[in-house]
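Reviewers of the previous submission asked for a worked example of the structure-prediction workflow described in the proposal, so we include one complete record here. The input consisted solely of the amino acid sequence. No template or homolog information was supplied to the procedure at any stage.
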Amino acid sequence: MNILITGGTGLVGRHLIPRLLELKHKVTVVTRNPEKARQRFSDRVTYWKGLAGQTHLNEIDAVINLAGEPIADKRWTEAQKQRLCTSRWNMTQQLVDLINASDTPPEVFISGSAIGYYGDLGEVVVNEEEPPHNEFTHKLCARWEQIACGAQSDKTRICLLRTGAVLARHGGMLAKLLPIFRLGVGGPIGDGRQYLAWIHIDDMVNAILWLLDNDLRGPFNMVSPYPVRNEQFAHALGHALHRPAILRAPATVVRLMMGESSVLVLGGQRALPKRLEAAGFAFRWHDLEEALQDLVG
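From that input alone, the workflow returned the following structure tokens.
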């Protein structure tokens, strides 16, 4: 297949593209900095500097849209909230417009989203049909998905990646936590009872490949079948690193430091991958302790 990817130098893209190349797919990466991307992928892929000048995607078989400003890196000022939205919405709209302008459009459009779509639902078990709690992360993801669905047709199917916390050896959530936990000063956040829906990077990549190869459509929770509470995660990470993990970060301090974005760590979703499992996808990494041993042990 000839596959177009946005966000190819992000955490998921960095792991996905080598797998696509191993499978003999042709990959085109849309990037603001082709030279930086070329340092990672060399000339094994084709590079587009943005989408300006493109009028259609007739030669593209599949589009994987992973672009978006990192959601947890900065406080959510009104300006930052707007950046988070426009970085996702604008790129997705450009892709939808190009798909709709194509005489032979891509067969599949796989577009990013997040389990933040559901908002903070506490103890509720969350599958893809669960009504959301109306807060900022829901509004961001709901509009993102709505735009992506504008490319739906009898020629193009849409898959939406409602992604949880992606665990990888380098980058993502673990990159922020490892220095703290390696010093032995990590631990639960707040009361530690909030759920963390996680997924090993290998399962994330394999699930995207599964969606590429199977006639599926709609939203998919990209999470392990076994979400854990924050205190369980802290204990498992400390155990993998042979370090104590008992120093709790008080909720009041977290709110003071992070502001509104503290909901990302003080709230959570008890999300399950109902539709992936129903479609026959087999997860490799079910147990969090085993996943962390693989990644950091």
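The mean pLDDT is 97. We consider this example representative of the routine output the project will generate in years two and three.
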